[in-house]
Amino acid sequence: MEHWDGAGHSKKILENLSSNGLLIGIDKDEDALKAASNNLKGYTNVKFVYGNHDDIKKILEDLNIDKVDGILLDLGVSSYQIDEASRGFSYLKDDVLDMRMDKSSILTAKNVVNDYKEEDLIKILYDYGEEKFSKQIARKICEYRKIKPIETTLELVNIIEQAVPSFAKKDGHPAKRTFQAIRIEVNNEIKPLYNTVVECINMLKPKGRLCIITFHSLEDRAVKNAYNDCLGKCTCPKDLPYCVCNKKCLGSIINKKPIIASKEEQEINTRSKSAKLRIFEKI
After folding, report:
1. Are 2-79+191-282 and 85-187 equal in CATH topology?
2. What is the pLDDT averaged over residues 26-54?
C-alpha cells in the first residue's frame, strides 16, 4: 500500500500498485480533493481523506492501518490553488487576501496583514520569506492600514512595490517573498514539518520509503534536518565514556543530494524549477 499527499499526478502510482494495493490521498483543501477524485474516478483502489498530513498517524489509525509501504509528501501551495484567483495566493492576480489552503480555517492573509503588530510582521517576512526588506515592507503596511484596511492582493502588491528599493526589483517580483511568508503563516506550514517527517518515517514498514518534494529553502531545510536526525548518529560529547543521547537509527537517506527536475521538465513546467525531492528508507 502507498500513501499519497496532494491532489495531482498519482495515476502512475495507482497503475503500479498490486491488485490489493490502496492509495490514500490526503489534502486539507476540499476543492483539491474534488479535483483529484474527478481525475481518478476510473480507479477503485484509492481513498480520499480530508485532513492534514501533520495528523497522518491518527488518519491511518482511523482507517485501521498500522504501517504503509510508501509516503509521498508534495509540500506547499499547489498549481491549482495558485491558478484559482479567488484563493488569493497569487501576487499576479487581483482578489481578496485569503491564502487559506483549508477554507474552514479562521486565520486569513487579510487578518495577518491588518491585525499583526509591526514587529510580528517583520519576523514573519524575515523568517518565512527570507525578505531582506522586511522592516521597510512591514512599516509601509502599517502606515497604509491606518488609512484603510488592506483587502486585496494587488493592494498589498502595490504597498510592497513602494517599500522595496528599485535596484532590488531586478531579482524577481518584489512581492514573491512576502506572499510566501504570509501564506506559510496562514497555513502553519513550517512549525510542524520536522515532527511530521519523523512521524511519517515511523508509519513506514521496513524498507518503506518517504519521498518529500519541497519548493523553497525553509521546507527543504526542515526535511533535511529531520532526515539527518533520523539517521541516529550519536550527539554526545566525545569525552563521555558512554552514550546518553539514546539516538536511534530509523533508516537511511537514499539520495544525499536532492533530485531536481530535468531541463526539459523545467522548460515545460517552470514551477518545477524550485522543486527538490529527498528520499528516506525505513530500516
Report:
1. no
2. 92
0.70 surpassed by pTM? yes
What's phi and psi for 4, nearest 5 deg? -125, 135
What are the pLDDT digits (tens) for 250-274? Answer: 999 999 999 999 999 999 998 899 9
Q: Helix (H, G, I), strand (E, B), or coil: what is residue 260?
A: strand
* Domain locations in the chain as residue ranges: 2-79+191-282, 85-187
C-alpha cell at 64: 485501521
Residue 106 corresponds to which cell in the numbers above?
A: 479562521
Q: pLDDT tens for residues 202-252? A: 999 999 999 999 999 999 999 999 999 999 988 888 888 888 888 899 999
260: left (phi over 0), alpha (psi -120 to 50) or beta: beta
Q: Compute the distance between CA of residue 272 and CA of residue 275 in angstroms, rounded to an integer.
A: 5
Measured between alpha carbons, how far is 93 from 105 in angstroms, rounded to an integer?
22
Superfamily of domain 85-187: Putative methyltransferase TM0872, insert domain (1.10.150.170)
The DSSP H or E segment spanning 263 is: helix 263-268
Show the 3-state SS of 31-81. Answer: HHHHHHHHHCCCCCCEEEEECCHHHHHHHHHHCCCCCEEEEEEECCCCHHH
What CATH number was assigned to the domain covering residues 2-79+191-282? 3.40.50.150
Q: Give the chain's largest Cα–Cα span.
A: 65
Joined together, the cell numbers standing for residue 240 give 563521555
CB count within 10 Å of CB 190 equals 17
Q: How far apart are CA 46 and CA 14, in angstroms?
A: 8
